[in-house]
Amino acid sequence: MSGTGERVTIKDVAARAGVSKGAVSLAFNHKPGVSQATRERIFAVARELGWAPSATARSLSSQRVDIVGLALCRPARLLGLEPFYMDFISGIESVLAERSCSLLLRLVRDLDEEIALCKEWWRGRMIAGAILVDFREDDPRVPALQGLGMPAVAVGHPRLTGTFPAVWTDDASAVAEAVRYLAALGHRRIARVGGPADLGHSVIRARAFADTVRQLGLEEARQIATGFDEKEGARATRTLLLAADRPTAIVYDNDIMAVAGAGVAAEMGFTVPDDLSLLAWDDSQLCRITHPTLSAMSHDVHHFGAEVARVLFDVVNGVDTQGHQVPTPSLTPRGSTAPAPGG
Amino acid sequence: MSGTGERVTIKDVAARAGVSKGAVSLAFNHKPGVSQATRERIFAVARELGWAPSATARSLSSQRVDIVGLALCRPARLLGLEPFYMDFISGIESVLAERSCSLLLRLVRDLDEEIALCKEWWRGRMIAGAILVDFREDDPRVPALQGLGMPAVAVGHPRLTGTFPAVWTDDASAVAEAVRYLAALGHRRIARVGGPADLGHSVIRARAFADTVRQLGLEEARQIATGFDEKEGARATRTLLLAADRPTAIVYDNDIMAVAGAGVAAEMGFTVPDDLSLLAWDDSQLCRITHPTLSAMSHDVHHFGAEVARVLFDVVNGVDTQGHQVPTPSLTPRGSTAPAPGG
DNA sequence: AGCGACCTGTGAACCGGTAAAGCCGTAATT
DNA sequence: AATTACGGCTTTACCGGTTCACAGGTCGCT
């Protein structure tokens, strides 16, 4: 991994402009101490020579880095499938770009690898901070990374994220809203197809779901934990619909599974929403391109990502930040939910 | 953007192990010149102190970087929607991770911004090389970046990519195969919903499509250029189906638009595939979760990404590489294609 | 004993910047 | 006139590694 050779450095620019390295540095960092004339001359020379300061050298001496890290620990094919992350990343980017900061991305296989990577990135001063996502109950990253002093922002409920400032959505309320909405439509048997059981937000949603169902006096609710992908979503839907006491409404933990569920329903001869109501989560564009369109608990994922990035900047800059909740996902009724059959 | 403070450096490790900085460096780079005993002592101390070499300092002095850059120039919402890029990125990552290299990602608004970014990244020695995607006809990046000496790999047909080593799929053949397949099913009026007209591969596909149609003696084909998103896909489909001489088969340039097209068809009362055959491109999981499932020109996007990364490594390491074609997308018939109505 | 080869390790130069102290001439203050 | 203030730039000391010439010590060989 070698460069081709003779690249221009600050010294060349300084020499050509007839000033010292220091002057060039001052000029390029828009600091006082250089006259306007000199400044312009320096910039002219830099342009002429095609010089830009070496980020490497700069961050070595200034102890500043313009890169933040994000490690994603999900199966590759799921990442491709689920619109959530790209949306989220683009939200992050929108804020980073403003500050001409870049995102260092790495897909990892497990949390141990993620921990090792973060340590390497941080100790190696490669990143200014990190974004941590997909928190689990008793997440090993909390004890492992907390002591590092690495600026980080955690995406997840504060209950899960230790001392890391958290940015999260109030999933419990959202789940409750979903259930209440379906109950209001007359549904008495509502099932839920959730994400991986070890994921923190799955636990939170599962609990809120059960609580709300009990509270509303609905029938005991069936919940199935899945791996978040369309195959498992389809299988879970099939299982639910084959049962004697099949539900009249199903809530999904993401949109992929909801779409898959709609397919299964059609295949099994159920009409959505007449026979069966479906409610998705996350609400990417995916929910709008199917027929019928999918009702969903929607939130602005792009904005979510942007907010996360903003909090990270605060942390990095030493601004005291507790993190905060972003707007709760709210119900967007579309074509896949309707009054319960025979209601 | 400051560090918290007293981080361990090579000097601390050297002192604690009773050797010089040089020895530690040699040990950590697995170079000869240090005895086994000393080596082990150094490693022990490093572990004890929690030290890892600073990537920044290392790359400054050794002129090596373990980061490659990727700038994506597409509207954010499309990136989230289209499974292609995440698949592609995960393929890239799979190869990078093996070499403990990371991916620097940035979303840009236009090619000028991308050019500026690449220059900055390269001159700033922040990246070892770059991956360039979405080539247009007479792409401005070719003249602008070619002279930089920056190792890069271009994703696109060599006709478009100047002197950059290219990795590409043979879209022309794939389009031809698609058309022949539909013709064999008895379709005489086949339309195509393509991507943005200025994108190089759109042009290639459009031309190949027209050629094949002519060659097979089919009716003059209607082609519509779109922005790749589901709205435009839906609109294009509607336009096609409203025409007096509506097609009996439509080929789409990605899967998003095909899914949207299927929705429009259903909404307009056409049954897929009895009244209308639909054929998607890229074939992400998306094609398998709809009903009917979508026939598609499928290729292994993950592998594509991996191959791109491999070529980039060759270029970076000075291995003489011309780049090469990856397997041509091949037809995967599913439920959305059938013999032409009344054929 | 003398010499070279080998092994292990040291020290200093360097990578390309930043930061802070210092220096010089002129203007404002007292 | 002497003192201070400041703008404008230079100098120098880092930042945390890598690299390379070279120094001692050990060993084998003549």
TrEMBL record, chains A, B:
Residues covered by the HTH lacI-type domain: 8-62
Keyword Transcription regulation: yes
One term of GO molecular function: DNA binding
Polar residues: bias regions: 323-335
Segments of this protein annotated with the region Disordered: 323-343
SUPFAM superfamilies assigned to the protein according to its UniProt record, in alphabetical order: lambda repressor-like DNA-binding domains, Periplasmic binding protein-like I
A Pfam family the protein falls into: Peripla_BP_3
Keyword entries, A-Z: DNA-binding, Transcription, Transcription regulation
Xref: SMART domains: HTH_LACI
Keyword Transcription regulation listed: yes
UniProt-recorded name of the protein: LacI family DNA-binding transcriptional regulator
Species this protein is from: Streptomyces nogalater
